[in-house]
Amino acid sequence: MRRLAIVLFLTAALVALVPATAGSLSFAPPPGFIGISPQGVTDTTDYELMREAGIQTVRMPLNWAGTEPDYADRRRPDWSWLDEQVGLAAANGLTVYFFVWGTPDWISPRMGAEPVASARQRREWLRFLRMAALRYGPRGSFWREHAELPRLPVRQWEIWNEENIVTFSRQPDPARFAKLVRISGRLLHRIDPGSTVILGGLFGRPLQVPPNIQSDVFLAELYEVPGIERYFDGVALHPYVADAGTMLGQIEDLRRVMELGGDSATPLYMTELGWGSAGFESRWERGPRGQARELDRAFAMLTENRGRWRIGGVWWFSWTDAAGSCQFCDSAGLLTADREAKPSWYRFNAWTGGDARTVPRASAAALRRSP
């Protein structure tokens, strides 16, 4: 009996090391449900590793200010970086998902403000968005120019990013954002009727309220604009929390608002989700093992409840650590800046069905050196 008890104890301990739902068919995420939202530079090797990790979608910034920094660039946008990234993704079987944001100085001195304050701003935004859709969408010129690549057009368009906080919107305003959503959704649905237009990822429960606006409050005010739900196909959330369990409140608050807005069938996307592996400099840093633990718990919760909450997908932030980024972003990667595996890398691959052996394991010293 004692020997049996020891065997049962050891078995339970081993089971505890496996993601809570990864071995259950009823809870296993469908293919493509888990993607990546990188920061910093990604190259050929990165995309090869993403493919081996079972990743099928990559969320990528389409920064208007970076693509057309000067007025003269209106006639010759700099697509070079995007061409490279979209090409590398396609070569490895990954579909790109753009989030579009960033007003250039020549259209507005208020960098970050949504470009809807004047007819000229709206016209220039639509011109740029149309050019992007006609380059990377289903009939895009990029695919004609690169016939050697698998044709994996961009069909998911996230409009802006964290528009409810001052980092990306200066003075968050649901009514102003609604103008951007209306004109953007109308254009993208006309160019590609099968495209998915998603509200830029709302930062769940920001500090400094006001001037920041909580995600459920912002969304509720957006739904007050008559007919706005016709112009988007999904709502995005960035549920940054100290503990994965507290995502529950943010998600259910948004679902409640969507139901009251008569929009309960619309999917909810977690377009950024992550924790840092650094040592508790902020509430979103949990140490190397804590990062892996919170990833496990978050993926279990979202996978198990994806039908009830109508979760359309989740994108982990981020791929690698990046020094000089936001306080927790610098240690948010699954990999260190030297492409060595953290504990979270192994948990991530357990959920995606990827091959975690493709990168070396980071030593304890490397984890301490990581930003």
Account of the protein in words:
This protein has helices at 2-16, 44-52, 64-67, 80-91, 119-136, 141-145, 166-169, 174-191, 215-223, 247-260, 287-304, 306-309, 343-352, 364-369, and strands at 34-36, 57-63, 95-101, 156-159, 196-203, 234-238, 268-273, 311-316. The protein is α/β, with parallel strands linked by helices and 371 residues long. The protein has a single domain (27-369), classed as Glycosidases (TIM Barrel), CATH 3.20.20. It has an 8-stranded parallel β-sheet with strand order 1-8-7-6-5-4-3-2. Strand 6, helix 10 (247-260) and strand 7 (268-273) form a beta-alpha-beta unit.
Question: What's the CATH class label?
Answer: Alpha Beta
Mean of pLDDT: 91
Total of DSSP H or I helical runs spanning 4+ residues:
14
The tally of strands reads 8
Give the percentage of residues in beta strands. 5-15%
Profile the largest sheet: 8 strands, parallel
Gap between N and C termini: 49 Å
Give me the side-by-side strand order of the main sheet.
Answer: 1-8-7-6-5-4-3-2
Order of helices and strands: HEHEHHEHHEHHEHEHEHHEHH
The CATH architecture name reads Alpha-Beta Barrel
Report the structural category: alpha/beta
Provide a compact summary of the structure.
This protein is of the alpha/beta class. 39% of the residues lie in helices and 12% in strands.
List the helices and strands and how they pair.
Elements (H helix, E strand, L loop, with lengths): L1 H15 L17 E3 L7 H9 L4 E7 H4 L12 H12 L3 E7 L17 H18 L4 H5 L10 E4 L6 H4 L4 H18 L4 E8 L11 H9 L10 E5 L8 H14 L7 E6 L13 H18 L1 H4 L1 E6 L26 H10 L11 H6 L2
Parallel strand pairs: 1-8, 2-3, 3-4, 4-5, 5-6, 6-7, 7-8
Helix pairs in contact: 5-8, 8-9, 9-10, 11-13
